[in-house]
Amino acid sequence: MAVTRTAAKTAARRAEPTPIFVWEGTDKRGVKMKGEQPGKNANLIRAELRRQGITPTVVKPKGKPLFGSAGRSISAKDITFFSRQLATMMKSGVPIVSSLEIIAGGQKNPKFKDLINTLRGDIEGGSSIYEALSKHPVQFDELYRNLVKAGESAGVLDTVLDTIATYKENIEALKGKIKKALFYPAMVIAAAILVSAILLIFVVPQFEEVFRGFGADLPAFTQFIVGISRFMVGYWWLLLLIVGGTIVTFIFFKKRSQRFSHFLDRMILRIPVIGKIMHEAALARFARTLAVTFAAGVPLVEALDSVAGATGNTVYESAVKRVRDDVSVGYPVNMAMKQTGLFPHMVIQMTAIGEEAGALDAMLYKVAEFYEQEVNNAVDALASLIEPIIVVILGVIVGSMVIAMYLPIFKLAAVV
């Protein structure tokens, strides 16, 4: 029992991030210098500075900001850029610790700078890169860590890091294309709703005051619009409450309920045009991720386990997990994929050819490139298709309100 407790305490100490110290000092010429450096304690930092020819005057722990962590959060783009920088430096022969020190020095995001310094401190303390990354599972997912582990074991870490950087860049480019396809129509629809709300709350009531003076019955369409306006003016707070509650409920169930997420992803895949793009994007991610992990030397079953979460869709995630289970009991990958009923014939055939020829990763790269190009083409086509549709929708919404407001005026003019 005592041994277990000691081991647990040791593991807990290892899991703690390396503290960052702020130092000031003078070099051999008497020039004042200052900086930040990770270390276990101030004495070790002073010893390291003296070794570098700097006489320390102040060494103290870096203070925490008053209101939480300073700086923006660490994004996927930050990790992608970091991966490319690290890959480039290691390919040039720069040691990993020096590479991390240089990258940290050029970081503008304080959170990411602290993270890189922590990684450097852990590696200097004897941890492997995989062990250092494993302490930050949010920023470095299982796929990233498994690839690094495979690269370290095979002694080809620089090549694997280059592969990871290329993979991350391709995936981020794909995500950007999908966001572009969805962002434009969403923003225009939001603008249409905002304009309609402004007209109903501020403009229509002004016309209603004028109509009261006419003393005549209003056309049915005008009465309908005026009724909506009255409801908006009287119960706008209720509408905001309903919309806000719906959004919060949606986000809650999306994060907490796997069944709801699965249902939502399945419905998205059935939407015309958008569903096709999401299908092709999931296939591109699946093919590229499996190709990268398999080429890096990760065992196939373990690679499929990492790939499942990288597809970006719970429907495909479940399908890949089923493929993993079938492959683990001896089925060929292409046969396991066919059993799911989700993968296109072309993908299954390319996988079968790759397995037979012993070039599965090469075939999967070709599949990924094909579907990434398909996504690019589909997004461009969608943008061209959506623009006129949105213009028509905006015209119908705004035009209907204008017609409803001017119908009584036209009716009175005809009577006169």
UniProtKB/TrEMBL annotation:
Keywords attached to this entry: Cell inner membrane, Cell membrane, Membrane, Transmembrane, Transmembrane helix, Transport
Subcellular location, principal: membrane
Listed transmembrane segments: 182-204, 234-253, 389-409
Membrane association type: Multi-pass membrane protein
Compartments where located: Cell inner membrane
Biological process according to GO: protein secretion by the type II secretion system
Name by which UniProt lists this protein: Type II secretion system F family protein
Organism of origin: Pseudoluteimonas lycopersici
